[in-house]
Structures are given as structure tokens and as C-alpha cells.
Amino acid sequence: MCRISGSNRPIILSSPFVLDTPGSPSAPLVEEVGSDFVHLSWDRPSSDGGGRLTGFILERRQIGANLWTRVNFTPIMATEYNIHNLIEDMSYEFRVIACNMSGEGKPSENSQKILIKDPKGKSR
Hints:
By secondary structure, this protein is mainly beta. It has one domain: Immunoglobulins (Immunoglobulin-like), CATH 2.60.40.10. A hairpin with a 6-residue loop joins β5 (53-62) and β6 (69-70). The chain is elongated. The protein contains no helices and ten strands.
């Protein structure tokens, strides 16, 4: 904020390029499941917040847990991703967050519950 000489009215300076955070991407869809990974895809948000998207962050949580864990810390530009190092016979859900220069948008809806299981493995 600054004041013009001889005036008591403040002037507030702001960028003419104020951005909002992006909208939510679609819920992630399962493309493939293996013994320790899942391949997900999603659609871009309908709103980019007025600026170019800088990528997506994925989060996961085990079914029954409250805590979401980041899968990637650097945004990725693709709308699909392989998530490795999952535990076989454990169920997870996933969500996606779009990012732009203004920050992170709201998370997508959660994916369906996904059981990590090798489709070629023996039945137990």
C-alpha cells in the first residue's frame, strides 16, 4: 500500500494477472493393477484458474486410514501415472490435485477402492 502525496487515501497496488487456483481434476480411474503398483489416469480440470497448469500431484491412502500421503512432490504434466511400492493385498484410494502458479487446487473426488493384487498370481 502507498499514499499519493497530498492525499490521505491509500492506493493498493496489485498484479493485473491475479490467478485463482485450478479446479479439481476428475477422479482417478484404474488402468492397470499389479502386485505392487497401480496405473491411474484422470481428466484435466475444467478451470485452470486463469493460468497455465504447472502439473498434478497425486495422493494415496490405505482404506480405513485418515492420512493422505503424497505420491509425487514435483508436479507431473501427464494425466496418467504409475504408482509403485504399494503393498499386495492392501486396498488403497487415490486423488489428484491440479497446480498452477497460484498454487494447488482442491483435490479430485477419491478413486474407487483399489485392491493391489497380481492378476497373474495364484489365488489364496
